[in-house]
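Final report, results section. Input specification for complex C-07:
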Amino acid sequence: MAGSRIDDSPFGRWWRNVDRTTLICAFILIGFGYILMLAASPAVAVRIGASRNMFIFKQVMFLSVAGLIVVGVSMLSRKAVLRLSLLGGALMLGATALTLVHGIEIKGARRWIALPLMSLQPSEFLKPCFAVVTGWLLTQRRISRYFPGMLLAFGLFGVILMLLKSQPDIGMLTVITTVFMTQLFVDGLNLILVGVGVAGMIGAGISAFLLFPHVRSRVERFLHPNVGDHYQIDTALRAFGNGGLTGRGPGEGRVKDLLPDAHADFVFAVAGEEYGLIVCLLIICVFGVIVVRTLLRLIREDDPFVVISTAGLVTGFGLQAFVNMASTLHLIPTKGMTLPFISYGGSSAMSVALAIGMVLALTRHQPGERSPRGESMMNTLRQWRPV
Amino acid sequence: MAVSPHDYDAPPPVTRTVRVTGEDLRARAHRDQMHVRLLGVAGGFCLIFTVVAIKLSIATVLHPMAPEKRQIASQIPEIPKIDPKGSLAGDFSLPQVHRASIIDRNGQTLALSLPVAQVYANPQELIDPQDVTKKLKTVLKDLNEEETTRRLSLPKQFVYIARNITPQQELAINSMGIPGIYFEPGERRHYPLGNMAAQIMGTVDIDDHGVAGVERFFDKRLMSDHHALRLSLDVRVQSVVRDELATAMSTFQAIGACAIVMDVRTGEVIAMVSLPDYDANEFSHASNDARFNRAVTGLYEPGSTFKLQTAAMGLETGTIHIWDRFSSIPIHIGRFTISDMKSDHFAPWMTLPEVMAYSSNPAAAHIALDVGGKRQAEWFHDMGFFAPVPIELPEAARPLVPHQWGISTTMTVGFGHGMAEPPLSIVRGTAATVNGGILITPTLLEREDAATAAPQEAALSQGVQTAALEQAETDTGSAKADSSSDALPTPQGPRVLSEKVSALLRRLLRLDVTSGTGRTAESPGYFVGGKTGTAEKIGPHGGYLKHVNISAFTGIFPMNAPRYAVYVMLDSPKPTPQTHGWTTAGWNAAPTVSKIVSRIGPMLQIFPDTAHAAQIDASMAIPMHPAVPRGVRPLGPGNDPGDPRKAEAEHRAAKAAERKALADQKAALKAAQKKQAQEVMDE
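Structure output:
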């Protein structure tokens, strides 16, 4: 499958140097996204009174655009990725601020801006851009001594924090915070400070529990399974139970028809009912491969900007997948977060595509790169070639 | 995966000496630290994804949460179980129906549920609604094609196509294999005997819950127990009674009629007919008048029938005796005059047998006055005339009873006016006077006393045998009498009369038929006893209507060993040439009772005994002018404690006030009755 080295066209070079495994994994997920949208969305569409194929047609469009974004962004140079992040980040930061004034209010939160054809959630795009910008800021402070990278990063984080708290979007806030923390951790933050950061996150979580009634109700429902309304999560678990090992078969799911948000937050349950344990494990594996493999590959990477940015990007990606699957499986309190590439949603699909595209662009093998060598255990790992 | 292009770039495995600055060293240390921590992050992700995978395995395979039945109903259809509890009972329970059958005392089916199906569609799953409709039309002949096609094209997920289709039709539609067409099992109540006991049966609603009659009263029982509900009714008797009553109703052009046959010892209602009636399968199309069960819901002034109660009350309280005499001179009280029909030409003073046989209103009023209003009210209360008659029908009506019990109420109630009672209540009260003085509870259920059921069977066969033997040998009559009296059940209930008074009342009732107003009720060999009752109807404006009567006859047979009460009531009968212009009970209701007794007697294992007629009649006879025992001063001229003229003189002032109150109360009662009357009169 490797292109011939003689092929010197830009596409040939890109194909040789890009992380093809991750690329293929991303397209596998897009494929699952198509199939599950066929299964999950008609019931929801009919329930909200739209045409039964509305979600399918829209998602076909979104996923096509997402595929183009993945390929397109993965062709950019590192510098272009940074520029894109700075520019896009600034734009999306402004747009996020705008949601507070001009946003569409859905279910008590202002997160969306109405655009023709779709509504846009700018904070989704902010996430990958922020990861790259943070990576750059944290690296830059080591290169030029007087560059207040850490301070700027924290300042930026603070602004985003305030914006997301005002929307409110506690889920996104948690993910961005975790991404930021992970980046600081990878950057080599003192372990004591890491501990302080984790403690701070726990404290913030407790205060969110006390401050936001919807957060409190969800956590309490999670902690006390016998009290309150568990219709959603019970229905999701019944869908998994109905699926079993091999699933009911395509289009044969019945519990899915009763799942609220079957096409978005609970799409994993639809996969469980129709395709069973085996395919669901496959989906987890694909996510795991993208995240873990990329992180391990970073060990061979020397450019701290690439390491920190990419670590942030895949952390955000992996965390989003985890939160979605775990809340569908009642491992954590329900949190409205999409399953990357698989859940319905334009903003989600495109922002995830942007993140994966950036990962692919940053981890693309740079011709002429020569890495210094050491004698540590890391050395062994660097020789390891993940397939 | 194929060979990676990185392999070509692999660094040469030789060590090189490189110069490193402090800056480089720091950067390298930083890089190493970064790489270790990346490993940590990767490890963290491995961990959380593993947890998700484990939880996923638990949720799907290891400990799956079963979906609710309704969630996967269309995926795993319920497999019908045939009689899972083995509760099939009799020949009338069918598998897959929930509601028990109703049968009469001989096992004849009165109501049963048939398995049917409702056919519905999910239009979202249909491919071509027009084609589907065309196919369905071949099985469901009365399907409206246009309408069905329209409904099947609606953007809905559930549309009924037809209700209550037969299993054959269901099978035929199912065989077509049309996707999106489903069936819902159901059942439909069917009354195979149509008009028979329609008002008693009542009906069920579309969800199979009883909404009237015994269907409603026994709703829970019918839904929970698969055994057929056995009623006390006997459809053979019911059929005869309905037949005779319908004939009488058309002969006398009555606007309504009702009849009851009740066992005076057990309270079992053997037949209960209310005309006009309707086909029980067409309840929804029946008129209110047809649905109206006159026997328990209709309230009528009992008229002279109530003189029996007055006499029983007087005798039981010891106020009067068989030899006492009562004034039949018209009584004037307020605006009202209590008198007999001018044509009667009664003697001014009548003995008790005469009062009963010829039915004198003023005399009955005098008896009531002698007993007194307070004791009279207590008596009627104890006889159950103040409460709805206890019967297993939700339609049992509350009687209309005067609120104030003044002197005029005492008098009018004494001869059966000023109070309105359902016919079954009258039958119940009459039963108590003849069965030895026990107030039994009427019931529509067959007595579940197995111990008495067996002897009855024995008596049955024995009875037939003896009847057959009797034709050949006329001397075994005493044996038959013995065997039948052995089989008679003992009445259960509170005692309201002594045996002695009951025996005396039996003779008085027999006297009414042998030589009184009820002569036409006689049925040879059955020794019918009874009391006529003709009440003038109250018109729409409150006043009594002359010549518009409720004429009723309450008969008992055989009077020497009372077994069954037969009540016939005709509402507004017209005079015919045969009745010489009369519309009183003796001319229409009493002959109907006679015909009914002659026909149902043999069905009820009671055979006419003409051989011993003289002997039995002699034992039942009572002189019209019984001798006064020595040393007793009988009531009569000069000894009339309840004479209103006396009272009037004493309480003239008090009465002036009371009269007004009475008039008001009477008006109020009439207003209440007016509705009743209108309901009956409207037709």
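Strands of chain A lie at 104-106, 109-114, 119-120. Chain A has a mean pLDDT of 83. This concludes the modelling results for the funded period.
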